[in-house]
Amino acid sequence: MDNTRGPKFEPNIVPHPGGMVVEYLEFNAWSQRELARRTGLTPKTISEICAGKAPITPATAIALEKVFHRPAHLWLNLQRQFDEAEARRRVRDAASGWKDWADKFPMKLMKRYGWLDVREGQDDVDALLSFFAVSSPQSWTSVWQAADVSYRQTRKFQLSEEATAAWVRAAELTAAELETSPFDEARLRSVISKLRQCTRMRAEQIMAPVQELCGAAGVAVVWVHDLPNTGISGCARWLSSNRALIALTLRYKTDDQLWFTFFHELGHILLHRRDRPFVLDNAIEDLGDHVVDPEMQRFEDEANRFAADTLIPPESLSRFVRAGRFTNESIHDFAEEVGVGPGIVVGRLQHDKILSPHQGNRLKQRLAWGVSDEDSNDVGGGK
Length: 383
Description:
Residues 30-75 form the HTH cro/C1-type domain. Belongs to the short-chain fatty acyl-CoA assimilation regulator (ScfR) family. This is HigA family addiction module antidote protein. One of its GO terms (molecular function) is DNA binding. By secondary structure, the protein is of the alpha/beta class. The chain has three domains: 18-95, Orthogonal Bundle (434 Repressor (Amino-terminal Domain)); 99-137, no CATH class; 138-377, no CATH class. Helices cover 51% and strands 8% of the residues. Strands 1-5-3-4-2 form a five-stranded mixed sheet, with helices on both faces. Strand 3 (232-240) and strand 4 (243-249) form a beta hairpin. Helix 17 packs across helix 18. The chain starts with 17 loop residues before the first helix and ends in a 6-residue tail after the last helix.
């Protein structure tokens, strides 16, 4: 093509519409100055359009429609396609340094758990951006910081912020699949007795009734695979003014740990809505009070007390302890009396050092979540 009538146009993969303007000029044997006179645009504007340096605006498209007898939407569509291609090119250029960001996430586990939808032609960075619904690592940082998480423990325990954020996002997405009614505190308190009864069920049977009972009161309850370097046991979070979330990991292997964590998070929902709307209980392997962030001490103590007293009424427990008979049979009978699973009673007695850590464990339910050792031991970021 002869481009002697104007500056040389270098086409992109999606060409700038100025290239077509140049073709029409050549077809009509017009100069750029002639086109300027016919359209009422300045010679400089025509020159920049032909050089691919200026866009075709709606007003310009209408002028070209009248001069070249090609509809305005044709010129605008060409401009839109070019603008989109240019924007994607700029993102690709900027993304050349984003791989280091993606490598900080436990990509292998996230893919294994089905959290990332890596489509054909999509790399890990794009998959992560889609997962978090952000446009860049900078946007991800902004969104994560705005979440304003309150951690159970102090940050000195070198947690992976990336893995923690990935777990939180997976919990959000899982909760989005559940239908819940608007939050109703009175209704939630009214189903606590039924939730306690669920502790007597087999672990594989509890998810549906717990989700149904809590969902009817405006609380989505989800179970999400844990990730390495997070130490998360669960979280309590307000997703909106009318919807709360309780998310639990699969890191605990016995029913007493699972249920105490659930009722602990329920305590945060009922007691700390205004003071701590997003609590992440990151306990590592140590549940001792010495790891609790001083700013969280009161809230954690209150949630612990709520869980302990809800599961086993204090008066009943005190009477049982005074009797001083802690055989498997007596523990089982006491659990029947108060309406909870016997493993709950064993866990409480072990926590209070009435039983040693090895006593009564036959009464606990062992939880098999279907996670292989390879899954649970896979650590670190990257693929």
